[in-house]
Write a structure and sequence with these properties.
The protein has 440 residues and is of the alpha/beta class. The protein is built from 16 helices and 14 strands. The longest helix has 25 residues, at 187-211. It starts with a strand and ends with a strand. The chain binds 5-hydroxymethyl-3,4-dihydroxypiperidine.
Length: 440
């Protein structure tokens, strides 16, 4: 049997996001976020689910950190809820919110777990949405001020700072498809939101660096390679066109080449965003790391239509299970862009877990999904990709946005009635991978 051993300092972790796990949506001075408003609006989320309580992590984080320790996690990626620390997005600060993250970080470090903070995982203060949200360029400056607050408070202990999680989802799912908060459906607004988020990223990186040049500043993109269904030349060309015009290249080109992709800019016609002088240099500042969230690929036919992979396995999200595309993605972007060190900041799968009579959750499909993807990551490292770590999505079952609680991605099952946590088989297996620093 082959043993795939990882570099000795490889960072194994798990990830979560504030709105998906914290709950306590209006406690201890927290302000309303756009996700509070969206999920409280009838018809927006499956079953009317909300993040009001979610995994109650706000109250149960010591227990959750004990579980992380039990798994042997070396790192934990979490996000900060902006309205918890600055209820209306601008001022004043909420001391109780700041204390929460302070204590979370202290306890992580006491458990020997490196904290990786993400400043924005989609829960914009509603008060800022009321002033135009990401359409309003001022939001980018407020974001830089919020960055300063957090870095001053936690920067002595948190060394890795991601500005945004999946800016493409924030911009497009929220402003073009209307499936996420704030629920807008307008291409021009979505493209302007994407641009203003990129400006916010640039200002935030400048802020982090000005406060402490030793800190590691980065961003997290979700990347879905576009591939040809059967491999005919016409399909390969269609897949390439679709990739070049899509959101992933928009972010890769702006961040790492300093310009908008030609194909995407042309395709957006009169809807392209307003770009101020100096924006592209701000956006494309050198980063210390990039996080990649990888789940699956987009498969297209010769006409560029999205198709299903015949005979392939699909997860509960209706996403194809296809690990080799992770290898192709990592090697391709490492060839085509001058990238900083990489982390897989999310990878995992939602399956229909059942609680067995023995009280356990036997989830061999999740284990096999993770195993296959770890092996592809290992191959990429062998072929020169500078991949430093891997965060499984997710530590806990949690609120999966528009799907509410119907999709379970966790290594740890959460019973939402009782808040009982149970390690799934995949979690026990992952603990072994971490212990051995290897996959069999
Ligand atoms: O749950 C999300 C997460 O918030 C962002 N990346 C994808 C995950 C699964 O859909």
């Amino acid at each position: 049997m082959t043993i795939y051993r990882f570099p000795s300092n490889f960072l194994w972790g798990a990830a979560t996001a504030s709105y998906q796990i914290e709950g306590a949506w209006n406690q201890d001075g927290k302000g309303e976020s756009i996700w509070d408003r969206f999920s409280h609006t009838p018809g927006k989320v499956t079953h009317g689910d909300t993040g009001d309580v979610a995994c109650d992590h706000y109250h149960r984080y010591p227990e959750d950190i004990a579980l992380m320790r039990q798994l042997g996690l070396k790192a934990y990626r979490f996000s900060i809820a902006w309205p918890r620390v600055i209820p209306n997005g601008v001022a004043p600060l909420n001391p109780a919110g700041l204390d929460f993250y302070d204590s979370l970080v202290d306890r992580l470090l006491a458990a020997n777990i490196q904290p990786f903070a993400t400043l924005y995982h989609w829960d914009l203060p509603q008060a800022l949405e009321d002033k135009g949200g990401w359409q309003n360029r001022d939001t980018a400056h407020y974001f830089a001020d919020y960055t300063a607050v957090m870095v001053k408070r936690l920067g002595d202990r948190v060394k890795h700072w991601a500005t945004f999680n999946e800016p493409g989802v924030a911009a497009f799912a929220g402003n073009l498809w209307g499936e996420h908060a704030p629920g807008i459906k307008d291409i021009k607004m979505a493209l302007q939101a994407a641009h203003n988020i990129l400006v916010a990223h640039g200002l935030s990186v400048q802020t982090i660096r000005s406060l402490d040049s030793q800190l590691q500043a980065g961003i997290v993109l979700n990347l879905w390679p576009h591939e040809a269904a059967t491999g005919s030349p016409a399909e390969i060309a269609a897949a390439e066109k679709s990739w070049q015009e899509g959101g992933d290249v928009l972010f890769l080109d702006t961040l790492f080449l300093g310009h908008y992709p030609v194909a995407g800019w042309q395709a957006s016609g009169a809807n392209h965003p307003q770009v101020a002088p100096g924006d592209m240099a701000l956006i494309s500042q050198k980063l210390d790391f990039m996080g990649i969230n990888y789940y699956s690929r987009v498969l297209v036919d010769a006409s560029g239509e999205r198709v299903r992979a015949e005979g392939a396995e699909y997860t509960e999200m209706n996403w194809e299970v296809h690990a080799p595309a992770l290898y192709r993605l990592l090697t391709r972007i490492s060839r085509e862009y001058r990238l900083p060190p990489l982390y897989i900041t999310e990878n995992g799968a939602a399956f229909q877990d059942t609680l067995s009579a023995d009280g356990k959750i036997h989830d061999p499909r999740r284990e096999s999904y993770l195993r296959e993807h770890f092996i592809q990551a290992h191959q990429a490292i062998q072929n020169g990709v500078d991949l430093r770590g891997y965060f499984v999505w997710s530590l806990l079952d949690n609120f999966e946005w528009g799907h509410g609680f119907t999709k379970r991605f966790g290594l740890i099952r959460v019973d939402y009635e009782t808040q009982k946590r149970t390690l799934k088989d995949s979690a026990e297996w992952y603990a072994g991978v971490i212990r051995e620093n290897a996959v069999e």
